[in-house]
Write a structure and sequence with these properties.
alpha/beta, 7-stranded mixed β-sheet, 4-stranded antiparallel β-sheet, 18 helices, about 50% helix
Length: about 425
């Protein structure tokens, strides 16, 4: 059995059965499985995840009699097979079918004949598969075409219109690319770019953030000594831009109430020239350790990472901060390119309760702001209920705050993660 496909299978099963995030599951399984071509594994895993509903629609066309008997392991092997046959030109048909049957013999015993039959039927009659009629049901068409839960498609159409929704869905597929933040405590952007080019990495300047470089070409950048010595970190441009908008100054006191994994905390420390104080709190102890480890790698000493529940007021922090960061838990609809499994979440009460929790965290965070200080709210979603609506409700109840700057980054327009940021000042 091919180690690459076996690794991809285990990754996809982790996502399906353990609700694992794809990036974490993939990295773990690559370490464990030691595939000969990690790039092939990544292409196959993300290809299946990005097109899951479309692949299932195709499978349903050729497995009409047995679809109710298909187990999770069957679905995963079939999706992998169909994706290789239909979307990976580098894979010969015989290899896609044979390797899928070998996987089935190992993980779907007794079902290999069924799986073989579906794949061979697809090869013969794939042109017979027709998508739902858009003129009759546009939501269903977009849901299948771009593999996204219908309730999410409907939400975006209500908020942005059908044309913009399709652009968002189109942009949610494909490689989001890699962006790095220059650690200005140790180097400059031009110097880092030159040193990376000398190591056969190709980078270009960001048009959005002043300390960002986009990595265009090169492999293993996180194994390079430049990374290990703390000259840069991985962070999306929109996330970096929120810290640029925050504009922390050397000598100030900053509080970050939902700090993990620490990207904004550490970016702020770099902008402050490692002078002042940043109190970074998070409810998970293991994530506190991650922040401290990263601070050490980057040569940052002003960060004090400590446990803290962002929904409960810490009396020791009242009116202590010049600037407060509240990057709150959210639906994550802005980072679907990186975590495509988010597209398939069912609409449960958790999503309706998110804005309530977000407002609660923002209200608590506001109590840590000094008179005349800055409060900044952000999410990695494009859902207006979690963004503009939360801010509107917060300002209704807290008239002593007013908006300084507000921005919604959109993947299809800004070519970044979907990110919302609102900077407010306490009058």
């Amino acid at each position: 059995m091919d180690t690459n496909r076996r690794t991809a299978y285990h990754t996809l099963m982790d996502v399906e059965t353990k609700n694992s995030y794809s990036n974490l599951a993939l990295n773990h399984q690559i370490i464990c499985g030691k595939p000969s071509s990690p790039s092939f594994v990544r292409e196959l895993v993300y290809g299946v995840l990005e097109n899951k509903l479309l692949l299932d629609y195709i499978i349903g066309h050729f497995a009409t009699k047995g679809v109710n008997k298909i187990k999770t392991s069957d679905w995963v092997v079939l999706r992998m097979g169909i994706y290789q046959l239909g979307y990976m030109d580098s894979v010969p048909e015989y290899a896609a079918v044979n390797e899928s049957v070998l996987l089935a013999k190992k993980f779907c015993r007794g079902r290999e004949g069924f799986i073989n039959g579906v794949l061979r039927s697809y090869i013969r009659d794939k042109d017979a598969v027709k998508l739902p009629d858009r003129s009759i049901d546009e939501i269903k068409y977009l849901s299948i075409q771009y593999s996204c839960a219908e309730w999410i498609v409907e939400t975006w159409i209500d908020q942005y219109g059908a044309e913009a929704t399709e652009e968002i869905l189109m942009n949610s597929q494909g490689n989001p690319g890699l962006c790095i933040r220059v650690n200005t405590l140790k180097t400059g952007k031009e110097d880092l770019a030159r040193r990376l080019n000398e190591r056969d990495f190709e980078v270009k300047d960001s048009e959005i953030c002043d300390v960002a470089l986009q990595v265009i070409k090169g492999k293993g950048i996180l194994e390079d000594s430049l990374y290990k010595n703390g000259l840069f970190s991985v962070q999306d441009e929109s996330s970096m831009k929120t810290v640029e908008i925050l504009d922390p100054k050397p000598g100030e006191t900053i509080i970050d109430v939902c700090a993990a994994p620490g990207g904004k905390t550490l970016a702020a420390a770099e902008r402050m020239s490692n002078r002042g104080q940043i109190i970074a709190t998070d409810i998970y102890l293991r994530k506190i350790a991650v922040i401290n480890k990263e601070a050490g790698r980057l040569g940052i000493s002003i960060v004090k990472a400590q446990p803290g529940d962002a929904t409960k007021v810490d009396s020791e922090l009242l009116e202590k901060a010049d600037r407060v960061i509240a990057d709150v838990p959210c639906s994550g609809f802005g980072v679907i390119r990186r975590k495509p499994e988010i597209k398939y979440k069912k609409k449960i009460s958790e999503f309706d309760l998110l804005p309530i929790k977000q407002l609660e965290i923002l209200t608590v965070a506001s109590k840590y702001v000094k008179k005349g200080g800055i409060l900044q709210y952000s999410t990695c979603t494009i859902n207006k209920q979690e963004n503009e609506n939360v801010i509107k409700e917060f300002l209704r109840k807290n008239e002593n705050f007013s908006i300084v700057e507000e921005r919604q980054f959109m993947p299809h327009m800004d070519h970044t993660d979907g990110f919302y940021v609102c900077k407010m000042v306490q009058k």
